[in-house]
Specification:
Number of domains: 2
Number of strands: 11
CATH superfamily of the largest domain: NAD(P)-binding Rossmann-like Domain
Radius of gyration: 22 Å
Largest sheet: 6 strands, parallel
Strand content: 5-15%
Mean pLDDT: 94
CATH topology of the largest domain: Rossmann fold
Distance between the termini: 12 Å
Helix content: 25-40%
Length: 334
Amino acid sequence: MSRSEAVCVVTWPAFDPADEEISSLLETAGVQVRLRPNVGPRSGEEVVEMMAGASAGIVSTDPFDRSVLERLPELRVLARTGVGLDSIDLDAATELGVVVTRTVGALEEAVADHALALMLAALRRVVENDAVVRRGSWDRAGAFTSAGLHGASVGVVGLGRIGSAVVRRLEGFECEIVAFDPYVQEASVPLVYLDELLARADVVTLHAPLTPDTRGLIDAGRLASMRPGAVLVNTSRGELVDEAALVEALRSGRLRAAALDVFVDEPPATPALLELPNIVLSPHIAGINEVTVREVTRRAVGSMLDVLAGRPNPGIVNPEALAHPRHATGTEPG
């Protein structure tokens, strides 16, 4: 592939084509950009059509399963703008020679901030009280009296970079923190089984990746086992939670509230989630702020260019894919 033929499809919706530094890097490397921002669900067929002829992608949550990857013979690298890999079949990518990278370290602190913001919004009933004031009421100690986070019992599900960052923030609120993570042996907070965590916590916050083991992790049975009046916060992946069961738990008053940044379908396809007053919603923006947008873009572009040029990069997830014949062209950009 010659320099003029190197094409990168960008679906990361926050990508700024006017950024001079990024534009200069791409131009110097001879990589042409096709913008296809992800603003909603895409089918595999749409992804294949969108990626046709591309050697690289800077991608958001677009689906790259085996059936898609097998029809993209020129694709050499997918730079994921985030840390979750559930939208990419990593085994198929490795087998087919598609290097996958991710932007670890660029947005974890922002996600932790947002998780705390959602917790506080749900407990303090910020959205409901905002609506009260806008209606012209001034109900200071009535139906919308809130709960507090200080001193509460909080269960953290998943102690990776984000879960650990959430723990550090909760310590400032003097919370009683317990955690569940089957892959962690030692931690700064007590590790308990998931069922114990659910029974003990006033607030449960999810920070686990989407895997076959975590899909549907918080189902109807586990929602029923949560402490009455508890709050559920999810900034990881929507598929961890049975949304229909969550709606029933919120309607019945079994749960005090929920706060969601992620959904099974995005935008959400469960109407009741949009109608319930005791739920706080945001559009999968936990990792996005003015600082992280540029850092994620910079890291994704850098890793993509490194792979195309045959250079090492710390963001590479499957270095075995580099041994595939499609990386031995000898005509890398830059």
